[in-house]
């Protein structure tokens, strides 16, 4: 009788654990941001649906090595000042800022993360 209960519990819990690991809210990979030749910042596994900040002075080049697209913002807290549009950066691409429009200070994720790391 004990073996049947244990087997029933395992048959119930194991699929739930597998489903939970596939429904992560982070996008596997890394965002790498630089400012000139002297500063580099890496953000591993950015969280989906959360505004993430770059260094306070901003960055002028961003490489997206994740499986999810991001939007780069000129302002803090994922806002954009008037006349300074945001930039869309698809997964596995890089972008450089137009210095006259200002540096990027934050980013947010777009869409849903893939169930597994694309790398």
Automatic annotation (TrEMBL):
This is Lipoprotein. PROSITE patterns: PROKAR_LIPOPROTEIN. Keywords: Signal. Residues 1-19 form the signal peptide.
């Amino acid at each position: 009788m004990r073996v049947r209960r244990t087997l029933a519990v395992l048959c119930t819990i194991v699929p739930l654990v597998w489903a939970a690991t596939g429904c992560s809210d982070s996008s596997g990979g890394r965002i790498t941001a630089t400012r000139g030749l002297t500063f580099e910042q890496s953000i591993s596994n950015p969280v989906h649906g959360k505004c993430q900040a770059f260094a306070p002075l901003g960055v002028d080049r961003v490489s997206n090595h994740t499986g999810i697209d991001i939007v780069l913002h000129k302002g803090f807290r994922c806002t954009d000042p008037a006349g300074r549009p945001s930039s869309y950066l698809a997964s596995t691409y890089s972008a450089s800022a137009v210095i006259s429009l200002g540096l990027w200070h934050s980013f947010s994720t777009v869409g849903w993360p893939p169930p597994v790391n694309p790398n």
